[in-house]
Amino acid sequence: MRRTWLFMPRHILLIQDDAPHAKAVLEALGNSSDATFQVEWVRSCAEGLARQADADAILVDLLLPDSRGMETFQRLFRAAPHIPILMLIDPQDEDTAKLAVQCGAQDYLFKARLDSFLLPKALESMIERAAISEAMFEQNDRALVTLDSIGDAVMSTDVACRITYLNAIAEALTGWPQEEAIGRPLEEVFRIVDGGTRESAQNPVALAIRQNKTVALTPNCVLIRRDGVEAAIEDSAAPIHNRRGRVTGAVVVFHDVSAARAMTLRMSYLAQHDSLTDLPNRVLMHDRLVEAIVLSNRHRRKLAVLFVDLDRFKRINDSLGHIVGDRLLQSVARRLFTCVRSSDTVSRPGGDEFVLLLWEERQALDARLTAEKILLALREPHYIDQHVLHVTASIGMVTYPEDGTDADTLLKNADFAMYHAKQCGRDNYQYFQLEMNARATERQAIEADLRQAIERRELLLHYQPKVDLVTGAIVGVEALIRWRHPQRGLVAPGQFIEIAEECGLIVPIGRWVLREACRQARVWQDGGLAPIRVAINVSAVELRALDFVSSVADSLAATGLQAHNLELELTETFLMQEAKSTVAVVRELRAMGVHLALDDFGTGYSSLSYLQRFPIDTLKIDQSFVRDLATDANDANIVRAMIGMGNSLHMRVVAEGIETRVQLEFLRALRCPVGQGFYFSRPVPPADFARLLKRGLRTDAVAA
Ligand code: C2E
Ligand code: MG
Ligand code: MG
Fold this sequence. Notes:
Structural class: alpha/beta
Radius of gyration: 49 Å
CATH superfamily of the largest domain: EAL domain
Bound molecules: ligand C2E, magnesium ion
Number of domains: 4
Shape: elongated
Strand order of the largest sheet: 22-23-25-26-27-28-29-30
């Protein structure tokens, strides 16, 4: 820009009524060697006002025909504040000229002393100065527009921490318009407190000025707006320096982080809570327990931890679906809340487990009362959609410091105690005892030994007959696994099948059972015994293995057993899984000609309509219904209904667990076709079963 000026003629407006003086000016400028001047000469103030617009500078004699002294200057200045004005005066008017300079005129020269050196120099520097200040003005304007359009609030102060500037955002966030804020102490306009303690936060500006460096605002800083509304803010203050490097004030830049801070809070809440029940999750529960231990220690108070695990929850989840399962968990969570004080913690570390921290237990008795309350509260039916669900819980209890001095030990021992409660028949609570530790260790030992059981040929099958309740003939046989453990002796499936299912060992074990049962059935046939259908038990875990169907086909092919001589006893747990593949697997097996039975019928949640989807041949009524058949009218009614249901679905019904003559008679009266139980025979080794098959059952046992 400067360079173009050098080549562009300066347009000078000369307002002068006195012709000789005007000529002197024209001459002085015409002879200038520095720059070219284009002078427009007018003789009155009015003419000057009319022509000022294009001028780079105005040269004016304050004494004009239509205006005099200060008035001349003021009229021109008002009309053209940006055009530099140089006044031509007589010495006696110097005071007026000085006044005009104070009011904005650039300078004055004595009319009598104009020459071709001084005048062009004066004009040139005057025009240049005006251009610079114009540019600065523009720049400042631009800076202000910029500051108003950025997203951050900007505020500046002088060294005494008095407000000198606020941009639009700062006005909005503080609630102070700039005009009102300017000159006020920063603390009045910018009221900040610590979000946690609510104490006044340190003034960052004073610090920035004092230390002459950029200072970050207190973390967790909250700005209180003029009307009291609060906003979380974040940012910094920095000192402002003049050209000589002296601190002249400070600028604070800040922005509203309420949304971001709220989001952070929400994220950390989510990371610490279970989304289904909104209860603290494992992480937060652990933190609270650690904290509770410290407090209990300090105040010499007791602390109890209750480990609550729902009984057979998986069955509900599998049979009625996850949505119902989830709602049941929510219902349980609500009930647990009603059993504790507000200072206690109810958490859900996962699945169907809940952990309760009971603070300030004065004696162990308090925890026991709470456990009893929980068992009672949970036993009440839960109404979820059209379902009336019954669920119980097993509770393990520990107290601090007796059962452990750190969080992990307490939780582990509470888990042992809970496990013990399960083994004591569920729906009860147990205190931790040292032996439980031993039991858990034993469980691990069983798992380790079980891994080698197949290779070491420690597994074997016993066989129990299924009997026609009218004729007494043996119409089938169920293979039941046993484990001959080198130290423990003969171990029943109840002691290891669940462990095998949990660790996946059930798959190779099940393969072995399948192959062995088929082989044995074939051996009996080949030995001249009448062909008999052999049933094996299959866990849900095994059925879910992708190659289950082909492994059945392989076993039949390898042993030469006909498919209709093999029966698979499935559980409701498997059938009720919602997966489409469940129906497909069952249909494939049935298509192969294998018979299918539903074991332990009545203990799950199968509905009639659901069962119809599966090509099941046999329903096995669970022994728990048979046990009290003769004495409990309710059970008798259920068994009657089951038999009726089996008939209408064209399924054969087998009653399990017949132990007495009375039970047998009862079942006969209800027209139950087939039965199984100790009354006829316990499960026996293959050789014994072969004898039984050849000889038949004792006639007195089966005679009608
Ligand atoms: P289950 O399939 O319902 O088998 C019937 C269980 O009841 C057997 O117990 C049998 O010995 C027992 N039992 C038979 N008659 C009577 C009776 O009159 N009174 C009483 N109180 N009990 C009777 P066991 O052999 O201990 O098997 C328990 C469960 O272990 C079986 O129940 C079955 O679910 C599972 N199981 C057994 N063998 C296998 C197997 O090879 N694979 C899988 N996955 N599970 C198996
Ligand atoms: Mg069975
Ligand atoms: Mg059964």
